[in-house]
Write a structure and sequence with these properties.
The protein has 392 residues and is of the alpha+beta class. Helix content is 64%, strand content 10%. Strand 1, helix 9 and strand 2 form a beta-alpha-beta unit. It is rod-shaped and about 130 Å long.
């Protein structure tokens, strides 16, 4: 692919044309910086000053694309201009090249040019005065300062302001990105929390419905079928009630971090009675004292899900629920007879263990579940010290 032709920015082309036009206008009127008898004028006449003028106007086309090259060539053009009668347009365009080299050049160039021009200004002030010993010699330093140091310093100030604005804009973009990430994480965490609540509140009732409906369909006993239908109806009503509560939270948006009618550990007796009504043989041994609300909800849901899993998977036998409260943690242990059957009595999604593990992890607790001999044991330890301190 052929390289694209060089096209300077429109503004730079306008600056170059304006400078060249101004210099030609001054040249047409015969106006110069120095008189013909000035000792610095080596090339007298009107025509010699046109070459530096044209060269430095061409450098203006490069002021933004290659500022260092433009400044280097422009410095040579200015030096040549000092050997002629000179043009004010050439000097003005050189100050613009110095300014552009600092603003658009590399960072190292932007740092060095103000120092170089500052030292040059000091030297141009002291050396001529030391040589000529006249006050007028100090004007050489003033001219060098006005032509070189002043535009370089101005360019450094502008560049610093521009860099500060770019940094502020970058920080704002980063802040917006972090805010969006936080919002996404918050939405994801909220969806996971609602998924856990939906699973824990409804799965137990649906599992009981599936098991008892299977029994009603497989047993040709009117009494057993009627009893199973009663359990199915009770679980359907309770599951529908729980679902309505959750829908109310989602619709109204009035949630303080826990679902409405948040269950407590004092409700474990009711939970155990419900499990017994569904056909489980459950014993409860709970001694826990005062427990913070987040830990209390997590413990209740872990016990609830463990009983649901026992209803679906456990072999005939006693399910034991034990809660103990040492000094700084709540220990939960639910054991049930381990079943060797290939398929559960009710279908499951496998989200129960995941939800229990997430609840423990959110409180910096531990969770494990697995077979121990002839039992399936669920263990969870939920710290309470940090939570209590955070609540207070």
């Amino acid at each position: 692919m052929a390289p694209r032709p060089f096209r300077p920015p429109r503004f730079d082309a306008g600056v170059a044309l304006a400078g060249l036009a101004g210099g030609l206008l001054l040249w047409g009127f015969g106006l110069g910086v120095r008189k013909a008898d000035d000792p610095l004028v080596l090339f007298d006449g009107r025509w010699p000053l046109l070459l530096p003028l044209a060269v430095i106007a061409g450098c203006e086309l490069l002021r933004r694309t290659t500022p260092r090259t433009a400044l280097a060539v422009g410095t040579l053009a200015l030096a040549a201009d000092t050997l002629t009668r000179g043009s004010i347009a050439t000097i003005v365009m050189y100050t613009d090249l110095m300014y552009a080299a600092v603003v658009y050049g590399r960072p190292a160039t932007a740092r060095r040019l103000p120092w170089i021009t500052g030292l040059a200004t000091i030297a141009a002030t002291l050396v001529p005065y030391a040589v000529w010993r006249i006050p007028e010699a100090l004007l050489v330093g003033v001219v060098v300062g006005a032509v070189a140091f002043t535009p370089a310093s101005t360019g450094l100030i502008v560049r610093n302001h521009r860099d500060a604005a770019d940094a502020a804009r970058l920080r704002a973009e980063q802040t917006a990105l972090l805010a969006e990430m936080d919002r996404t994480q918050a939405v994801t965490a909220e969806r996971a929390r609602m998924a856990r609540e939906l699973h824990d509140m409804v799965a137990n009732h649906l599992s009981a419905i599936a098991i008892h409906s299977t029994a009603a369909l497989s047993l040709d006993d009117p009494g057993t079928s009627k009893e199973a239908l009663g359990v199915i109806r009770e679980n359907s009503v309770q599951g529908l009630s729980e679902m309505r509560r959750l829908i109310g939270i989602l619709r109204d948006g009035q949630d303080d971090g826990r679902p409405a009618a948040t269950p407590t550990l004092d409700s474990l007796g009711t939970l155990v009675d419900h499990a017994r009504a569904n056909g489980l043989d459950v014993t409860l041994d709970a001694t826990y004292g005062e427990v913070p609300a987040p830990v209390e909800l997590a413990a209740y849901r872990i016990v609830q899900e463990s009983l649901t899993n026992a209803l679906k998977h456990a072999a005939p036998g006693t399910v034991t629920v034990c809660l103990r409260r040492p000094a700084d943690a709540l220990d939960i242990r639910v054991s049930s007879p381990h079943s060797a059957r290939d398929t559960p009595r009710a279908p499951g999604s496998g989200a129960g263990l995941v939800g229990m593990r997430e609840r423990a992890a959110l409180l910096d607790g531990t969770f494990e579940a697995g077979p121990e001999g002839t039992l399936w044991v669920v263990r969870a330890t939920l710290p309470v010290t940090d939570v209590v301190r955070g609540e207070t």
